[in-house]
Amino acid sequence: MQIEISGHQIDVTPALRDYVESKLAKLERHSDTLQDAHVILTVDKLVHRAEATVNVTGRTLHAEASEADMYAAIDALIDKLDRQVLKHKEKLTDHHRGEGSLRTAEIG
Fold first, then answer.
1. Terminal CA-to-CA distance of the chain, rounded, Å?
2. In a domain, 50, yes or no
3. Domain assignment of residue 14, given as a range
4. Which one of 31, 34, 84, 97 has the fewest CB atoms closer than 10 angstroms to its CB?
């Protein structure tokens, strides 16, 4: 997965970059269909905001989070994206795959 990290009114330090990349690796464990991610870190006075757009096969996921600390904002962002990735993965799996053979066995 390609990751692009940018900052608005904040310098993206190597520590922040490594933190975001390690957290996004968590998403890769849940889905193989992640293509790329664009993360924007923003600071407005006392509010730290993180937002991300992740392209998944057939879909674009977007989330944003605001906290008093940048690391907490990144954690909240990753939690939201993780839920979206898991929901997308659930939609892709066919839950009725073996159901037809059970019904024919019960009827016959």
1. 49
2. yes
3. 2-93
4. 97
pLDDT at 19 over 70: yes
* Residue 25 domain flag: yes
Residue 79 is assigned to a structural domain of this protein: yes
> In this structure, what token pair is assigned to residue 108?
């016959």
- What is residue 103's predicted lDDT score, i.e. its pLDDT? 52
Across the chain, mean pLDDT equals 88
Tally Cβ neighbours within 10 Å of residue 59.
Answer: 13
Query: Which of 67, 75, 92, 91 has the alpha carbon at shortest distance from 27?
Result: 75
Q: Is residue 99 part of a domain?
A: no
**Structure confidence by residue, pLDDT tens digits, 65-83:** 999 999 999 999 999 999 9
Q: How many CB atoms lie within 10 A of CB 54?
A: 24
Mean pLDDT for the stretch of residues 94-104: 60
Domains of the chain: total? 1
Alpha-carbon gap, residue 44 to 104, rounded angstroms: 62
CATH of the domain at 19: 3.30.160.100
